[in-house]
Specification:
Layout (H helix, E strand, L loop, with lengths): L2 H24 L10 H23 L5 H9 L8 H22 L1 H6 L3 H8 L8 H23 L8 H16 L9 H13 L15 H21 L1
Helix pairs in contact: 1-2, 1-4, 1-6, 2-8, 3-4, 3-10, 4-9, 7-8, 7-10, 9-10
Length: 235
């Protein structure tokens, strides 16, 4: 399997499990309805961990354009591979969102709130404030990339790294996710948002394109800054 296919499959798995847990929590008549933020953050953390276990040995398990660009910016990843990685990540996220739509097919009609339906696919701010929202996404991804590089600098029992990364994602979600829903990943947000736009979801409302640029630009800028700062501090 090529690294591009691994990124596609890994990102698809990430979104299936991540958007899937959100769907279970917010869609009506789901047995997980209203189980809360902790369930969502744990679901996303385990989604990252097990996606990395699945294909990380092949591609490095980026699943996130902000990580790919950040690693390239400090010479830890080849720039010529960046476009292919991002394309694979976007395609995987889009396909994963379609899977979640099909999996929860009867629940869309049972859910009246368009915002709840959109939340399954992508993020939205708790308080709409452009500067604060982009700061949240930027700083969240700054700590994501800085933390990933720090974790990579440590030695763990063989095979434990993906699980440590998953728990790190849980920590980010619990501590920094309450403002914007911690996209911290342009593919994870934009790919499913595109799926929401094209899928025949009953009463889905708008895909909120006016906000869509923030979870793209914020993570890329913040993630690159996190990588540069880590390199400046630790070499």
């Amino acid at each position: 399997m090529s690294a591009y296919w691994a990124e596609l499959i890994g990102t698809m798995m990430l979104v299936i499990l991540g958007d899937g847990v959100v769907a279970g929590v917010v869609l009506n008549k789901s047995k997980a309805k209203d189980s809360g933020w902790i369930v969502i953050t744990l679901g996303w953390g385990f989604a990252v961990a097990f996606a990395v276990y699945a294909v990380g040995a092949i591609s490095g398990g980026h699943f996130n354009p902000a990580i790919t660009i950040a690693f390239a910016s400090i010479g830890s990843f080849a720039w010529e591979l960046v476009p292919g990685y991002i394309l694979a990540q976007m395609a995987g996220a889009f396909l994963g969102a379609i899977f979640v739509y099909l999996y929860y097919l009867p629940h869309w009609r049972e859910t009246a709130d368009p915002a709840a339906k959109l939340a399954v696919f992508c993020t939205a701010p708790a308080i709409r404030h452009t500067f604060a929202n982009i700061l949240s996404e930027g700083l969240g991804t700054f700590f994501l990339v800085f933390g990933l590089l720090a974790i990579g600098s440590n030695t763990f029992t063989e095979g434990l790294n993906p699980l440590i990364v998953g728990f790190f994602i849980v920590a980010i979600g619990m501590s920094l996710g309450g403002t914007t829903g911690y996209a911290i990943n342009p593919a994870r947000d934009l790919g499913p948002r595109l799926a929401h736009f094209v899928l025949p979801i009953p009463g889905k409302g708008t895909s909120d394109w006016g906000y869509a640029w923030i979870p793209v630009v914020g993570p890329i800028v913040g993630g690159t800054a996190g990588a540069l700062v880590f390199k400046a501090l630790f070499g």
